[in-house]
Design brief:
By secondary structure, this protein is an all-alpha fold. About 60% of the residues lie in helices and about 0% in strands. The protein contains two helices and no strands. The protein has helices spanning about 5-20, 30-50.
Length: about 60
């Protein structure tokens, strides 16, 4: 996957906030909104793993 810019990350978080109101546990996995929700979640997760890594709490 290509590098995600901060601008793309912020757009993804805004879109995810919109989708949270449209997609729930009862939405079929083949629904286009569910697919978009999962793709955007992956984008956000990838960006945050690079820019906001979680520290190992040992």
């Amino acid at each position: 996957m290509k590098t995600i810019s901060r601008k793309q990350y912020l757009a993804a978080t805004r879109r995810l906030e919109e989708l949270i109101n449209l997609v729930d546990d009862n939405t079929p996995t083949d629904n286009p909104l569910t697919k978009e929700f999962l793709q955007i979640s992956d984008i956000i997760e990838e960006y945050e793993s690079i820019h906001y890594p979680m520290e190992d709490s040992k």
